Amino acid sequence: MSNSMAASLTGFSAGLSAEVDPTVENEDTGGSDGMDGFLSDLANSIPGIDEAMSFAEMLKLVQTMDYSVIVFDTAPTGHTLRLLQFPSTLEKGLDKIMSLKSKFGGLLGQMTRMFGVGEEFGEDAILGKLEGMKDVIEQVNKQFKDPDLTTFVCVCIPEFLSLYETERLVQELAKFEIDTHNIIINQVLFDEEGVESKLLKARMKMQQKYLDQFYMLYDDFHITKLPLLPQEVCGVEALKAFSQHFLKPYQPMLTEGTIEELEQRVSRLQQLLKEAESELERARKGKQPINN
């Protein structure tokens, strides 16, 4: 793994962040150049190696440093499923390769001697590297399936495609024996300002339909709804303020149908009426004939 450096989070007294470059370089594998160059090219050619190697790198950091919580911000569903499936697939593949040792081990040794290749490409060296990789993958698998160590939080929005992808992800997580019991629904529209826009009302109606389906499908999950804001959540103070919604459910400022909400709607309509009357008055003045 190359270029993976942990850096302090600006504005926070504790916590580190790291962006991992999943490219496997020669110097990262340790040992001689010939063998490591071969393994580097082999590893980088495997589909899904970027996700698997990223997790392996973070697992190394977990083993050597003291953290209370490690958060992985994963890619969209397709890449995430490939990441979750990779450890089991690779572990089975390595088991198969190791089982062929008795059949092809002698042949491999003869070929290396015949072509005059050094010991770095010998049978023992290759099998040793594979054994080391297998141990790491087994540890990754074990950590994935331990609910005391790993849980998966699904993040989605109240739309059909996102609901479908979340259901697909939850089902696959169950197959992989990975714990998941939290769903965050982001970008939810709340009717808290007496909205009169037909477009916004239509969007809220559509969202409510899928919100109802989320609660029906995942009645045993902890579901958190986060509001759609008029601005991006950027900066330490904005993040701290927004994070309160994870601890305390977001409540609209006004509830539809209450006296306060109706009074605000009347006030908004009166303001719109005044603006419309002003525009009409200006338009009438613009059409008046010019006296010579």
Structural class: mainly alpha
Low-confidence stretches: none
Name the strands of the widest sheet in spatial order: 3-4-5
End-to-end distance, in Å? 84 Å
Shape label:
elongated
* H and E order: EEHHHHHHEHEHEHH
The proportion of residues forming helix, as a percent range, comes to: 55-70%
Please provide a brief summary of the model:
The protein is mainly alpha-helical and 292 residues long. Helix content is 58%, strand content 8%.
List descriptors.
single chain, 292 residues, mainly alpha, three-stranded parallel β-sheet, two-stranded antiparallel ribbon, 8% strand
Any overview of this molecule?
With 292 residues, the chain is mainly alpha-helical. Helices cover 58% and strands 8% of the residues. The chain is built from 10 helices and 5 strands; from the N terminus they run ββααααααβαβαβαα. The protein starts with 5 loop residues before the first strand and ends in a 5-residue tail after the last helix. The model has no long low-confidence stretch (mean pLDDT 75).
